[in-house]
Amino acid sequence: MCGITGIISPGSPTLGNDLINMLKQLIHRGKDATGLALYESRDTIDVRVALNEENHRAALETILKKYGPVSNARFYRGKGIFSFFEASVGMDAGRLKDLNWDIDSHPDLCVHSIGKSLKVYKDEGSAADLQHCHSIPPITGTHGIGHVRLATESVENINFAHPFISYILPELAIVHNGQFTNYFNMRRRMQSWGIRFKTNNDSEMAAHFLAYHMTEKNMGLEEALTRGLEDFDGVFTILASTPTQIGALRDRLGIKPMLYYEREGAQILLGSEQICLTPIVSDVYATEMDPGGVKVWSV
C-alpha cells in the first residue's frame, strides 16, 4: 500500500509546505520513503541528483560542465546513505534529455529532476523527515504531486522511490499506487522501442510509457493516460504531471482509491484518501473517481 496526492494552486507561495502537510496525513499508507514533485516559477534550468557515494560529486560536476556553467550548487547528505546535489546549469534547454541520460549512465548517479520548472525531492522516511533533511525552501509555484511509499518489492534504494521522471520528457513526473502485473512484458516491449531503464521499479516503466507516447506519438496527456489504461494490467492509480497539467488514471477494477476536489478559484486537490485533503480545506467533501476513469486538469 502506498499513498498519492496532488494539488493545483497557481501562484501559491506555500506549495511545498502544503504538499508536505497533505503527505503527513498519509503516513499510515507507508513511510519507507516520501517524495514530491513541485512545479516552480523560475528562470533557471535546475538539476537534482542522488549520489550513492559523496566522492562521485566530481564525476557529476564534470558531466554538468560539458553542458554549461554551474551555479547555485547545494550538496548535502540525506536521511539515509544517499547524498544530494542540486544546482542551476546555464545550458540549452533542448539538451535536457541528453544531460539526463549522461548522468543516469553513471552507475552511482541518478537524476531525480531536471528542467525549467520541475523539482523533485525524495528520500527515505516520512514527510516530516523529508522536510527536515532537505530543507525544502518556500517557493512560488503552480502545482505538484506527492507520494508515500510502502516498499512492496523490498528495495529501499531511494532511486526506486517516487516521484519518477523520464529522460524522454524530463519535466513529466508521475506517482503511482499499486502494481503492474505485466511489468516485465511491458519493459521488454518498450526496450524494443529503444527505451532505456535506470531502475527495476514498475513505476519507471509507466513514466517512460507516457513520455514516449507524448513525444513519439504526439499524444496529449489525457490520450497517453487513456492508452496506458489499455496497455497496463494490474491494480493501480496514477497521478501524472507536466508543467501545465495534472492527470489522474484509475484502473478498471477500482481497487486502489483516487479522490478529487475542485474548489472555486482554480484550486484542485487530489489524493488516495479524503483526510489528506483536509490540511488545505478542512471541510472538504471529495469525489471518488470511477473505475477506469481518466481526468486531466490544466494549470
Give a structural overview.
The chain is of the alpha+beta class and 299 residues long. 24% of the residues lie in helices and 36% in strands. It has a 7-stranded antiparallel sheet, with helices on one face. Strands 9-10-11-12-16 form a 5-stranded antiparallel sheet. A 4-stranded antiparallel sheet has the order 4-5-3-6, covered by helices on one side. A hairpin with a 5-residue loop joins strand 4 and strand 5. Helix 1 packs antiparallel against helix 4. The model has no long low-confidence stretch (mean pLDDT 94).
What descriptive keywords fit this protein?
alpha+beta; 7-stranded antiparallel beta sheet; 5-stranded antiparallel beta sheet; 7 helices
Q: What oligomeric state do the depicted chains represent?
A: single chain
Estimate percent helicity.
10-25%
Largest sheet: 7 strands, antiparallel
CA-atom Rg in angstroms: 18 Å
Note the gap between the termini.
Answer: 29 Å
The overall average pLDDT, rounded, is: 94
Total strands = 16
Q: Write down the overall geometry.
A: globular
Report the order of strands and helices: EHEEHEEHEEHEEEHHHEEEEEE
Low-confidence parts, pLDDT < 50 over ≥5 residues? none
Explain the layout of strands and helices.
Blueprint: E1 3-12, H1 15-24, E2 33-40, E3 46-51, H2 57-65, E4 70-77, E5 83-89, H3 96-104, E6 109-115, E7 118-124, H4 127-134, E8 141-149, E9 164-166, E10 169-180, H5 183-192, H6 202-215, H7 221-231, E11 234-242, E12 245-250, E13 259-263, E14 267-271, E15 287-288, E16 294-298
Antiparallel strand pairs: 1-8, 1-14, 2-7, 2-8, 3-5, 3-6, 4-5, 9-10, 10-11, 11-12, 12-16, 13-14, 13-15
